């Protein structure tokens, strides 16, 4: 492929990354992610062989499909990014230029500069999604973009990746999408069950909504452990949960009513923390 | 062939014992597993293996990793059974765990008789292997991230969901950094002549990714939360084996790419590279000491395990803090052995939790008095983790910190042995007067063997079928065997029940993950095995 075409590929990839940052629609954001993944190989000066390229395309589409499955039936609205979207898009454009500059600094004898430009641009697009976004979907997209950008930058440094590398990276991208899909589905269920959601609902103003502090609860109380999870996870049960008297030892095989640990079907309580009893 | 025979015997014995009940199971397991030790000591280590018409020289490393993976599988199965079975069955399960750890110890010590490969490994080809390994480990890690949410909490516990998201994000970022760092010193034609600045940058990138993935300080919080959440046996596989595989890939990069570049570029003693190594050493020391101390002070067993794993991250980082080429080789031997030992610790914790129904250390006063076999199990796990002078694991744990050299090496050595503190505290607690929770009940041996949820015995009654584990009461079943299981999995992909599938089938998933991790570790070691063979 001509360097000019590779440069055009880098431009379109960065444009797709910038566009997905503007998206307020859930589906548009997922489609933007799919576009970034599909367009990424175009930034390479020589396309990989057909088979690994096809594998990459399939994993890219699969990743987008899995995330679309996850958001099925959810409101089609994303909260705004911290800077509003357009500044982040501008940073992506700057990243494109920065990538070309880095390629010059790294020097000749390395991989294509267009891949470096696209990789840096996609990495910069992933930063606000990974670090500052307040919803599961954007975090998921950010994770996928991080892997994609790593592949692009690695190609820019070490040349077009081997077939096995493309396959392995494609697997990682699809796996990240599947793992994210599970998390999004669980978050959606948490919202549907009326419990506190993992992330504030962008459509609900006030506490718990997009205007609320990250860990505020629905009643507006400040989170006593803003950097911690549930008492069960923190192990601070002695402070967080009143101590209860130890239960008398039961006969083997007897089941305590209401005790999840005693249910042999409950796999999530194998150490029987005190607060579960 | 020692390791292979030990693995085969240990696995067969474990599986047979899991299917049998009562005295027969104990006899089979005891005799078969006891046979492992002399076999491991008498038969020379495996040196070559023929696969697909090609002969691979393993130098004992690949075989020992296989033994590690197999022993871990057995331990995870035992842990799973300990959860499912009634408390009286726990000591019998512990016998298996004890035997498996002992067998693994014997196999590994037999396999580690040969000298470390040192610089011979560096000559081996294959610079594409490490990033491929990293990508596969990251794929497994992100796929398993939702499984940190217990089934009971799926869809209702927001904090657990948020933890899963953080675990996934961390794995992806660490993988991305590692892939870039590993490519930093490579060109289209292989390793490039790089200046010290580039070498230092690549070193910091890869070491940083290892620190992030393994949960070294200051990245320990997310990793510890991910370890604490969810079933402990799954945590052992996810938080011990996946980081071990990740670190092994990084160490392979250091040996195959970084060391040759530094040797040919003359940047071995460059101040910039030395500064980068010093920075890594500081992080390693803080992680080693901090993780061990927090593990010793924490009152929750799962946190003890989590911070013990954090402490291990410090030891793994020492491979990058030392300019000694043998440090990488030592780490690549130590990582899988340690993963087995930590799986053993998780198994012990599951058993202790199942025996007294608490995970609080301060409620377990006198546990050793009431369950001497449980005490023997903890002793075996401690031996597997630290060994005794002359044992392979002891030498590895000693030589890795000392590879840093100078007073810093001595300091590192002291920090590395702080890892004994959690074991000492558990032992001290166990020898005190029994608490109200532990009570007067003695966990006797032998007792019923209720492995794998096959059956459990009611007091004085007939065996009672146990509900298939992994399915919460009232939950729609998503588990099946064979094609049914596959179909359930495929359906789950489309219906959003995949998380439930993951969380409710954690023993199976754990087995698969341990197997994948073991295979990956073997694959990584085969590349260096050729060099080992040529050196030998």
Describe this structure in words.
The complex is a heterodimer of chains A (277) and B (536). Chain A has 277 residues and is mainly α. Chain A has a domain at 3-192. Chain A has helices at 3-22, 26-39, 50-70, 86-106, 113-132, 136-158, 163-192, 231-234, 237-240. The longest helix of chain A has 30 residues, at 163-192. Chain A is globular and about 60 Å long. With 536 residues, chain B is mostly helical. Chain B has two domains: 111-441 and 505-535, no CATH class; 478-503, no CATH class. Chain B has helices at residues 2-19, 22-42, 61-84, 90-111, 129-144, 158-183, 196-214, 220-228, 232-265, 271-297, 301-321, 325-356, 367-370, 372-386, 392-402, 406-417, 420-431, 482-495, 498-504, 506-535, and strands at 48-51, 54-57, 186-187, 190-191, 456-457, 463-464. Chain B has a two-stranded antiparallel sheet. In chain B, strands 3-4 form a two-stranded antiparallel ribbon. Chain B has a two-stranded antiparallel sheet with strand order 5-6. In chain B, β5 (456-457) and β6 (463-464) form a beta hairpin. In chain B, α14 runs antiparallel to α17. The two termini of chain B are 17 Å apart. The model of chain B is unreliable at 49-58, 85-91, 109-125, 444-487, 489-499 and 519-536 (pLDDT under 50).
Write the layout of secondary structure elements.
The complex is a heterodimer of chains A (277) and B (536).
Chain A: H1 3-22, H2 26-39, H3 50-70, H4 86-106, H5 113-132, H6 136-158, H7 163-192, H8 231-234, H9 237-240
Helix pairs in contact in A: 1-2, 1-4, 1-5, 2-3, 2-6, 3-7, 4-5, 5-6, 6-7
Chain B: H1 2-19, H2 22-42, E1 48-51, E2 54-57, H3 61-84, H4 90-111, H5 129-144, H6 158-183, E3 186-187, E4 190-191, H7 196-214, H8 220-228, H9 232-265, H10 271-297, H11 301-321, H12 325-356, H13 367-370, H14 372-386, H15 392-402, H16 406-417, H17 420-431, E5 456-457, E6 463-464, H18 482-495, H19 498-504, H20 506-535
Antiparallel strand pairs in B: 1-2, 3-4, 5-6
Helix pairs in contact in B: 1-2, 1-3, 1-4, 2-4, 3-4, 3-9, 3-12, 3-20, 4-12, 4-14, 5-6, 5-9, 5-20, 6-7, 6-8, 7-9, 7-10, 7-11, 8-9, 8-11, 9-11, 9-12, 9-20, 10-11, 10-16, 10-17, 11-12, 12-14, 12-15, 14-17, 15-16, 18-19
